[in-house]
Structure to design on (490 residues):
């Protein structure tokens, strides 16, 4: 049998780092082994599942490039792929277990169960279902049902023994069955519990490997007991270590951005997030760190998923993002920037494609996240210039700056070529004519045109702004300089 893996999210929120990593490991394992990647939506908990969350999961997975071979939207031979549509499968298998004597109806109300647990707690005994409904006779059951009680169905655990498996990541894992109890497999409302639905689906969908986070490790013995009760061969399990926040506790929302969408909004590109997620628990050779998704699809090995928890590191993600952006062509980098700014409500149609290419060329390696386009390129994106107070102070102190702005404006206005070369030539000429070093004049122009003391190359800045905006900003600076420098001298 070939490799068949699944990602089985419960749609009760966005796709978070942990889930995205689980999805990715499954996806990569399928691709690296010519297998099949199944997406299954575990939405039996109607109170917590939302369509919005399902959509968010689809969007995030598509954005990350994880296409599923079977699942919602694409279908497949073992559908439907949403648990809410698979009720008949669970009903049939629950009935079979009951008939085989491996499950029994339980009529306990939540009040009774609470009282039982409370009593166990005062005795400092383990909190476990005590099996009180297990020995009911047919007559007693019939009596309760006649009184309108809706039973849950519980798995009938055999006393003693242990459940063990060989985990691809963690090695041999053993649980004493006595730590478990007669757990519920179908609730009194008729809906299957996670452990039961998961086993039925993984079996029916012929899943060969279950790759998931080790927060599920305590579910695995229950699932293995169900496989045994059905007489089914279980899949191979691989439980990846959890992901920690910088403070060493389990990664959660409290640590900042944690959903795929949040990283997209922070200007992270999919290739970088895929790369980063892969490295949260997997290593290639301990040296190489940069991989495209296509490379990961070839190189990923489950055996190299480590058992120690990894720490989420935002600086590393930003660094990887810069590395991936750097490897893109200018055209594609320009496309990323344009699309990103456009989703943030920026009017990107005001500029040509060539302009955007020049824009990213100007940003150079400052572009680590797409937000940097805004941070470092604001002067070119917005019509209104935001003047940095300190930068302006440095200009006010320069005698004759007003005239220099005026003269430079006039020369720019007369330059029909408006190329990097022509702009450089006219700026140097003007500097020489006014007895300034080129760098001094450029420094002044930088403040007038970008509002800051540090900026990308000034001639690129001019080309990006275009003649009209460049001239207007220089004239504005001239007027402001005259007004303020005049006042301060008076
Ligand atoms: N629906 C479960 C979850 O989201 C799936 C766990 C599993 O992979 O078995 O955690």
């Amino acid at each position: 049998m070939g490799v068949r893996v699944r990602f089985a999210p419960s749609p009760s929120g966005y796709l978070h780092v942990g889930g995205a990593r689980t999805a990715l490991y499954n996806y990569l394992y399928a691709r690296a082994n010519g297998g099949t990647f199944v997406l299954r939506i575990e939405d039996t908990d109607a109170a917590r599942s939302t369509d919005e969350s399902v959509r968010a999961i689809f969007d995030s997975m598509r954005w990350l490039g994880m296409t599923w071979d079977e699942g919602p939207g694409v279908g497949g031979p073992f559908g439907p792929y949403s648990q809410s549509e698979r009720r008949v499968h669970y009903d049939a298998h629950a009935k079979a277990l009951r008939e085989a004597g491996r499950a029994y109806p339980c009529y306990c109300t939540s009040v009774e169960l609470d009282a039982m647990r409370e009593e166990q707690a005062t005795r400092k005994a383990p909190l476990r279902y005590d099996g009180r409904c297990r020995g009911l006779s047919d007559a007693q059951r019939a009596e309760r049902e006649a009184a309108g009680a809706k039973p849950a169905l519980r798995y009938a655990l055999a006393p003693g023994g242990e459940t063990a498996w060989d985990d691809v990541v963690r090695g041999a894992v053993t649980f004493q069955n006595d730590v478990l109890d007669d757990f519920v497999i179908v609730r009194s409302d008729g809906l299957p519990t996670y452990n039961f639905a998961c086993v039925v689906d993984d079996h029916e969908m012929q899943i060969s490997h279950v790759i998931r986070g080790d927060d599920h490790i305590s579910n695995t013995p229950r699932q293995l007991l169900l496989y045994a009760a059905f007489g089914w061969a279980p899949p191979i399990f691989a439980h990846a270590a959890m992901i920690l926040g910088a403070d060493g506790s389990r990664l959660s929302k409290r640590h900042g951005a944690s959903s795929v969408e949040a990283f997209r909004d922070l200007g992270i590109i999919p290739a970088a997030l895929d790369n980063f997620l892969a490295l949260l628990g997997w290593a290639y050779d301990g040296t190489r760190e940069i991989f495209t998704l296509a490379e990961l699809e070839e190189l990923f090995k489950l055996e190299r998923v480590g058992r120690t928890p990894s720490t989420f590191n935002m600086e590393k993600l930003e660094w990887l993002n810069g590395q991936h952006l750097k490897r893109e062509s200018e055209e594609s980098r320009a496309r990323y920037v344009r699309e990103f700014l456009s989703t943030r409500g920026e009017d990107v149609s005001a500029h040509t494609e060539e302009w955007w290419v020049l824009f990213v060329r100007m940003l150079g390696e400052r572009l680590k996240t797409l937000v940097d386009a805004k941070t470092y390129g604001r002067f070119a994106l917005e019509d209104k210039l935001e003047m940095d107070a300190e930068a302006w102070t440095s200009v006010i102190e320069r005698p004759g700056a007003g005239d220099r702005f005026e003269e430079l404006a006039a020369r720019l206005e007369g330059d029909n070529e408006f190329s990097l070369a022509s702009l450089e030539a006219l700026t140097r000429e003007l500097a020489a004519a006014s007895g300034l070093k080129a760098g001094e004049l450029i420094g002044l122009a930088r403040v007038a045109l970008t509002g800051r003391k540090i900026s990308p190359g000034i001639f690129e800045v001019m080309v990006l702004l275009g003649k009209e905006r460049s001239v207007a900003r220089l004239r504005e600076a001239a007027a402001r300089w005259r007004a303020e420098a005049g006042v301060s001298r008076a």
About this structure: The radius of gyration is 32 Å. The pocket of glutamic acid is lined by residues 8-10, 42, 198, 212, 216 (CB under 6 Å). The CA atoms of residues 117 and 123 lie 10 Å apart. The chain is about 50% helix and 10% strand.
